[in-house]
């Protein structure tokens, strides 16, 4: 057998769905997972249980892998460099991945290549925040003092964690308590959030998925609509080109998600980068010719990429969050009987309130119908809709 | 967690692809496999290595499973009855499955419910064959002695194995040497083979996929075209109704494939039955709203079934057989670069000449194009096309 072994660090749902997408390719998939109960560890044959923060564990795991890729961005950069020095291809590589690990590095790099971002500054204390705010003062949506301002720890945040929106210098003290560097950003006056998903291979081949609208609830992705409704064609093209340029300039290999603010005055600004399959690309499993997971696998193996075009006029993804009702399986009866076209994707996770435990995809020609079906199913699975 | 455990007996590619289809449902999948190298065992987490012909092994395996289903039809009927007596749901159940295990039982039952089959008779020796042939004599395509006649062992045949086409009473000796019962059938004058695939749940819900054309080469399925081109709508409906009726009358649970002869005089006759996902349904992975594998899982769990309708005007599946060239992975470069819409499904099997090691699916609006793409890819992977 000459089929390669793809080593995936991290046992979450992204690894689970990447494994699923890799099965048809006949590749071998090896998983480094924190516990045997992790989402991906439940469905993968070749699982190593260990701590990705430990270099020896990583090295043992990487032995026998043809390439290493990731379910998350938390592997220390120096460990990735050590693996590369051992001769193991790491994709995306540490020099790319650092931009998804460190928001300060990311902002500096995007500035350098001329990609529009919210105004921002690394700040050391509340005084810095006040000074930064003062410079922003008087914009629409801010007081004369420039507040509110967004503060983010440069590392470790996700799904709204590690992010604060502060209305005064007094409130700005909290983010500094952990002693990690903090990035201050203007609070962008946006009408919606978009995401541009692209995939790039070591060869430099790249494909762009249609730009999607991503709707957040309480800082967590709730709904993704593909393609983004009523998006000016030139702006969509600009967003795709921007994502492709970031992928190229940062030498990203694999999937890159560029989260964007669509501002009230019609601009697009980069919010965050993720270098792995991303929640804003889950719709591709049922809505695109090639899913983000299949293309991520193809990219890290330096195989030619698959067609990213949509298969339906509209595809909608809605996340399924844990509710008060732990038995999601019994909800299948209603959901599947109501909508025989519904696509359920569950992650094998125990239900905890607010935890992402799955998502649903729907597609069709009528956006209102497609949205209603996805929202109903997600709400019913969560237990917030009972009829 | 209330998610059920589906126990799959047999580690072949059908189990592999059923596991793949079960991952999004969040169910637990447990596999009984002959060896750890089997196609499905490579990609499933929870694998028991053992012999399905041993009742104790089956019983141990079934403990902790909510339902048992199958990758093949070879589990002894009495073992299935024993599992049922233990209280384990077996789907399809032994009373249904016997019709896919024993061609003599199948023919008798289809006769009884009035489903058209080739003329047939259980025969004990070459003399019986000659007498059967004489009754068929004078039809188009046969000599005055009624030969050729098709002889089949009633159990254990597949992919052309256990089947003989004999031209004389002298040639009819061979099939009897194994000492197993033999079924004699008229050699049907058919213009093509069709397959009607349906899925049925314990509740009695059933869905029918569009009838497909199945092209065999040397007795092995080579190409499947969905839907069957130029098939009279009334005949297609008749084939679907026939398959649904067989599923109901035989109390099939799960996927049922009904292989059909489309005769020169415009009739359809049942050739074989298979009660599991089937090669003639592999196109559904990329060509239908719900794949045969997903619907098989839903059926054995008594969940509402998914929509079986096609997503494309035409979908073509071509099997990838092993050739002289063992390195199929390197052929990915050409195949994927040539056709970014190509869907490759490999089974993780070592390449042996003539062995089914995977298949490809293509879809689109132009049948000639879709056929050419699938055939080129399968031929290139096999090594019979080199440019």
UniProtKB/TrEMBL annotation, chains A, B:
Self-association and partners: Homodimer.
GO molecular function: 5-(carboxyamino)imidazole ribonucleotide synthase activity; ATP binding; metal ion binding; phosphoribosylaminoimidazole carboxylase activity
Domain ATP-grasp: 107-301
GO biological process: one example: 'de novo' IMP biosynthetic process
Organism domain of life: Bacteria
Presence of keyword NADP: no
Family that this chain belongs to: Belongs to the PurK/PurT family.
Organism: Streptomyces dysideae
InterPro entries: ATP-grasp, ATP-grasp_carboxylate-amine, ATP_grasp_subdomain_1, PreATP-grasp_dom_sf, PurK, PurK_C, PurT/PurK_preATP-grasp, Rudment_hybrid_motif
A GO cellular component annotation in the UniProt record: cytosol
EC number: 6.3.4.18
Reactions listed under catalytic activity: 5-amino-1-(5-phospho-beta-D-ribosyl)imidazole + hydrogencarbonate + ATP = 5-carboxyamino-1-(5-phospho-D-ribosyl)imidazole + ADP + phosphate + 2 H(+)
Pathway(s) annotated for this protein in UniProt: Purine metabolism; IMP biosynthesis via de novo pathway; 5-amino-1-(5-phospho-D-ribosyl)imidazole-4-carboxylate from 5-amino-1-(5-phospho-D-ribosyl)imidazole (N5-CAIR route): step 1/2
List of residues binding ATP: 103, 152, 185-188, 193, 271-272
Protein name: N5-carboxyaminoimidazole ribonucleotide synthase
């Amino acid at each position: 057998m000459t089929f390669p072994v793809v080593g995936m660090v991290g046992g979450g749902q992204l690894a689970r769905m990447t494994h699923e997408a890799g099965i048809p390719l006949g590749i071998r998939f090896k998983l480094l997972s924190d516990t045997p109960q992790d989402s991906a560890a439940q469905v993968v044959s070749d699982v190593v249980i260990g701590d990705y923060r430990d270099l020896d564990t990583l090295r043992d795991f990487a032995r026998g892998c043809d390439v290493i890729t990731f379910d998350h961005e938390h592997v220390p950069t120096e460990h990735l460099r050590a693996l590369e020095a051992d001769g193991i291809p790491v994709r995306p590589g540490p020099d790319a991945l650092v931009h998804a690990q460190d928001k300060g590095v990311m902002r500096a790099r995007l500035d350098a290549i001329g990609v529009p971002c919210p105004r921002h500054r690394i700040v050391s204390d509340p005084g810095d925040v006040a000074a930064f705010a003062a410079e922003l003062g008087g914009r629409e949506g801010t007081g004369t003092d420039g507040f509110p301002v967004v503060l983010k720890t440069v590392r470790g945040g996700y799904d709204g964690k590690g992010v604060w929106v502060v209305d005064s210098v007094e409130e700005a003290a909290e983010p500094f308590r952990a002693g990690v560097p903090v990035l201050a950003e203007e609070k962008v006056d946006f009408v919606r959030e978009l995401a541009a998903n692209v995939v790039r291979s070591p060869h430099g081949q790249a494909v762009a998925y249609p730009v999607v609208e991503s709707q957040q609830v309480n800082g967590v992705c709730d709904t993704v609509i593909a393609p983004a409704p009523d998006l000016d064609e030139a702006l969509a093209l600009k967003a795709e080109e921007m994502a492709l340029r970031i992928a190229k300039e940062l030498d990203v290999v694999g999937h890159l998600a560029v989260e964007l603010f669509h501002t009230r005055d019609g601009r697009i600004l980069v919010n965050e980068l993720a270098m792995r399959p991303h929640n804003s690309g889950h719709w591709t499993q049922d809505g695109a010719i090639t899913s983000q997971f299949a293309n991520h696998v193809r990219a890290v193996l330096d195989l030619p990429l698959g067609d990213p075009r949509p298969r339906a006029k509209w595809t909608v993804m809605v996340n399924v969050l844990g509710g008060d009702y732990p038995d999601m399986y019994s909800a299948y009866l209603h959901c599947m009987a109501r909508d025989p076209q519904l696509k359920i994707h569950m992650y094998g996770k125990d239900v905890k309130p607010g935890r992402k435990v799955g998502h649903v995809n729907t597609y069709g020609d009528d956006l209102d119908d497609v949205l209603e079906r996805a929202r109903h199913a997600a709400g019913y699975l969560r237990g917030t809709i009972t009829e």
